[in-house]
Amino acid sequence: MNRDFFEGIRTCFQDRADYDPAYTPKADMALVYGVDADMPRRLAAYRNAGYRCAVMLGIVWGDYSDYYAGGKHDDEIQTARSGKKLYHGPNVPYTVPTREFCDYITGRLKPAVDAGAEGVVIEEPELYGEAGYSEAFKREWESEYGERFMPQHASVEAMERSSRLKKKLLIRAVQSVARGIKAYAKAQNKAFFVTVAVHSPINYAQWGIVSPVSEYAALPETDALIAQVWTGTSRTAQALKCKVGERVFENAYLEYAALMAAAGDKPVFLLSDPIEDSPAHGWEMYERGYRDTLTASLLQPGAMRFEICPWPKRVFTGRYPRFRPGIDIKGDDISNDVSKPIPEDYAGTLAGAFEMLRSMPEEAGEFQTEGAAMFISDTWIDCRPLPDNIPCDREYEGRLFRHLTDLRSEVPGAAQKCDELLVHAADTPAKLSAFRESTMFPEFFALALPLVVRGVPLKFVYTSSVARQGRLPAGIKTALLSWDFMKSESPRVNEAIADWVKNGGRITLVSDLADDGYLKAMGRDKARDELLGLLNVPAKEGIYDVGSGSITVKSRCLAKMCLSREDEDLLPEIGSNGGYILRRGGYVIAAATQQTIGLSGSYTDMLSPGRAMLQNPVLRPGERAILRELAPSGD
């Protein structure tokens, strides 16, 4: 039975709560969370209210106490090197998705088909980078590799093999559950879609989580992705010019772009959250983060489907902040705090935004300036954390982690303490390794962040996609690449890049040619040297013509680039705009990053209370706008 599952579905939301017209947003689809005994009643209530419905559940964590009852399957709980078992919350373990567990999840989903759900959203197939020591994982290792288990901390090879196995188990889990539940639905002559909800590969690398995002979308059994990007992921701090800070818009732009690329030609719903998981912050921060992430999502050409609100009940009935930032008080006691319900203006802004997203034009939209492509990979996580044979200053790492945690919790002075530590990040190879391993993920952001600050439209290309297809996507003229923090899945990747260059492509390759041994120890010099060999170019700085294209080789240590206070333009041939302007039908989406942006004409401000009218609006650095054009701009 073939049909477009998502025809007419532009917006959705997820909630475990009952349908309640007082706070349930208008949308096309409700994702009814959880597959407990009450799920059929909740699903029926949303259907009766006019929503199309799917169910949603975690595939490696959730309320699966019956699976673990009596200590059964405790050996499947993800386990760290110390023996600590990893939990999502009290009594909710993270699971190694064994075949038996996948069969269990499929069984839990069958009542959803019976209850009339149109599909399922499988949330967050993930294995922690620090995990890999449970007895279940050891058995999977021995089955996969036909040899005795090797702990991942033993060597770079062991770490990479552990990561590769984790990815295989996660892909198997998604594929097994998708096949099983679709077969069950088909036996009842019902079509049933499978969507995978994932964080961006950028965030997974920052937070030390294994999840091969691009591979899920490539599976024939999956039908769509949900891009789980919100203030909570995008607040993860980065380092730029030796200063640590949260750059929510810039980070969100990169996260959405990475997930748009991962989805390929399959639908993708871009999530924005009006608050975030932590209740410790005030409404002003939540609204600022929402504006940043929503604007970043709409700056993705082709974005046309949106998850408008996870957990609307906690947004529209919650009170924040629930406790002082940085102090982890559990529970819901708000008797002695300064928490407030959602401000009326913000609630009105959200209602208007939800309505706008349902009617956003489907046309892709165009930037007025040239963009660039950057190669990314699911192999980023293969050595995070670093194995024992790579020197890493754990004391320095611990101090940095504590200050970054304080920064996230808005503890005064945390940013300054981070900056003071950052000055010494390059003092020793061991400290530099700790910086590389940190949540700041400096190798990636050294390349990508300056481009977003400049306002360069950036498109990502997955090396795994190039490996499958043997070619680059059409339309790419300029690309940026570093193999210093990722691996090549196949020789086909560099072969395809080399062919593209010879046929007119321009690529900038950034690598630490004066490496002190780190890249060689990690095996990261091999893919770089392979590409240079295919292009017959020396491992030496310079610009080299190859066929009708060219390669620019730059010798830089990516981590140290984040520590330099000097600007460096890696792609000088791409113009600098200091921000973004994207036109979609009658809408103008704009973000000023580095320079002031001015627009000519009359507009409606779609994110202001009452939708204010603006004439010739001006955006200063740090300001975002989603506007509806009322008269020709002429700019």
Give a topology summary.
Elements: E1 11-15, E2 29-33, H1 39-48, E3 52-58, H2 65-68, E4 87-89, E5 92-93, H3 99-115, E6 119-123, E7 127-128, H4 135-145, H5 156-187, E8 193-198, H6 201-207, E9 209-210, H7 213-218, E10 224-227, H8 231-234, E11 238-240, E12 243-245, H9 248-263, E13 268-271, H10 283-298, E14 305-310, H11 312-316, E15 319-320, E16 340-341, H12 344-358, E17 366-367, E18 372-376, H13 394-408, H14 414-422, H15 429-437, H16 442-454, E19 458-462, H17 463-469, E20 478-481, H18 491-502, E21 506-511, H19 518-522, H20 525-534, E22 542-546, E23 549-555, H21 558-561, E24 579-584, E25 587-592, E26 597-598, E27 602-605, E28 613-615, E29 618-619, E30 624-629
Parallel strand pairs: 1-2, 1-14, 2-3, 3-6, 6-8, 8-10, 10-13, 13-14, 18-19, 18-20, 20-21, 21-23
Antiparallel strand pairs: 4-5, 7-9, 11-12, 15-16, 17-24, 22-23, 24-25, 25-30, 26-29, 27-28, 27-30
Helix pairs in contact: 3-5, 9-10, 9-16, 13-14, 13-15, 17-18, 18-20
Strand order of the largest sheet: 1-2-3-6-8-10-13-14
What's the mean pLDDT score?
A: 94
Sheet/helix structural class? alpha/beta
Task: Tell me the total number of β-strands.
Answer: 30
Count of helix runs: 21
Structural summary, described in words:
This protein is of the alpha/beta class. The chain has 21 helices and 30 strands. The strands form 8 sheets. An 8-stranded parallel beta barrel has the order 1-2-3-6-8-10-13-14, surrounded by 5 helices. It has a 6-stranded antiparallel β-sheet with strand order 17-24-25-30-27-28. Helix 9 (248-263) packs across helix 10 (283-298), helix 9 packs across helix 16 and helix 17 (463-469) crosses helix 18 (491-502). The relative contact order is 0.09.
